[in-house]
TrEMBL record:
Beta-lactamase-related domain segment(s): 11-334
GO MF terms held by the record: hydrolase activity
EC category name: hydrolase
Source organism of this protein record: Janthinobacterium aestuarii
Keywords from the UniProt entry: Hydrolase
Keyword GTP-binding: no
Source superkingdom: Bacteria
Family matches, as InterPro entries: Beta-lactam-related, Beta-lactam/transpept-like, Diverse_Enzym_Activities
Keyword Nucleus attributed: no
EC number of the protein: 3.1.1.103
Name this protein carries in UniProt: Serine hydrolase domain-containing protein
């Protein structure tokens, strides 16, 4: 089905989400390398006086940061032969020497099979000083047996971010801007905090007791805030047009940002018979099979993006559902219906 034919159905899905108070507002797109449809619905907040959501509204994209930042930069380091999937942390981060993380590999981190702790507990475990937190994370014991189970954890992206900073000799936000955002023209994307600018809207997320308001322009993820706002876990703010640039470049990988072999390997199941299946940081979209070739990553704030090289198509759905609730059943229903419509499933 031509891309333009999706507009009415996708618009109806998103508007229903606003009407049923799943999220105050949303922006979305579906496209190929050459064509796309996009739209927005609702407002920044439920208040009638709130500004209408726009297609270029900035969102706290939460764990989509893991893809835009960590996955992209790891891929470049692999292409440059500065990093291998079988590289051990003991050879990359001296702070792991003699501790449980030492033999863990980059592959295990990217497939969430390293046996890392599943809960953050950073401040409770290590306080609020950055160096103490990093030292503690690199020395902590595993909670599972490496290679035996797929268990999603933020720790993987946090540790990979530290690997990237050590190998490139620069902070993660600087590396991301230089090696990914600038080459792709993603001028609206970056780590927060984001100050409101004329004509640039920022979607608010959850109410914060400490701030006495809904967070807007400040990252929602507490671990990321504790680490100063820049890490592999979360922290990026972006919008639909910039994420389109990223996904289009993945569909047509060339130049210095994406290597075709890295994209192909990442969007292939790497975890054998273990469930849930994982590629390299990407995972098959819920409710799809290998024949569908639709890959996904989600964000806790209500964000999602999908890509299918076989179909030559991508989709983005950014919402601020966290404004209302941490309950995910209804947003996941909308995500499923949106994905199935976008990819003609």
């Amino acid at each position: 089905m031509p891309i333009a034919n999706h507009t009415d159905q996708l618009t109806a899905l998103v508007e229903a989400g606003v009407r049923e108070h799943v999220f105050p507002g949303a922006a979305w797109a579906v496209g190929t390398v050459d064509h796309h449809a996009m739209g927005a619905a609702g407002r920044l907040t439920p208040e009638t006086s709130s500004a209408a959501m726009q297609v270029d509204t900035l969102f706290d994209i939460a764990s989509l940061t893991k893809i835009i930042s960590v996955w992209s930069l790891v891929g470049q380091l692999v292409k440059q032969n500065r990093l291998r999937l079988d590289s051990r942390l003991a050879d990359l981060l001296p702070g792991t020497a003699g501790y449980a993380l030492a033999p863990i590999t980059i592959f295990q981190l990217l497939t969430h099979t390293a046996g890392l702790p599943l809960r953050a507990r950073l401040r409770a475990s290590y306080g609020d000083v950055y160096d103490d937190i990093v030292r503690g994370v690199l020395r902590e014991p595993l909670e599972g047996i490496p290679g035996q189970a797929v268990e999603y954890t933020d720790r993987a992206a946090l540790i990979l971010g530290l690997v990237i900073e050590r190998l490139l000799g620069m902070p993660l936000d600087v590396a991301l801007a230089e090696h990914v955002l600038q080459p792709l023209g993603m001028t609206a994307t970056g780590y927060g905090p984001v100050a409101p600018r004329h004509g640039q809207l920022v979607a608010p997320t959850e109410y914060c007791d400490e701030a006495g308001a809904h967070l807007a322009g400040t990252v929602h993820d507490f671990s990321t805030r504790l680490l100063g706002g820049v890490c592999g876990i979360s922290g990026l703010f972006s919008n639909v047009p910039d994420l389109q640039r990223f996904l289009r470049a993945m569909l047509n990988p060339h130049g210095d940002v994406f290597d075709a072999a890295w994209v192909r390997e990442s969007l292939t199941v790497q975890t054998g018979d273990l469930q849930p299946s994982r590629g390299l940081f990407w995972h098959p979209a819920a409710g799809t099979g290998p024949q569908d070739d639709v890959w996904c990553h989600l964000g806790f704030t209500g964000t999602a993006m999908w890509i299918s090289p076989r179909r030559g198509r991508y989709a983005v759905l950014l919402t601020n559902k966290l404004y209302y609730t941490r309950e995910f059943d209804r947003i996941n229903d909308i995500r499923r219906d949106f994905m199935r419509c976008a990819f003609d499933l």
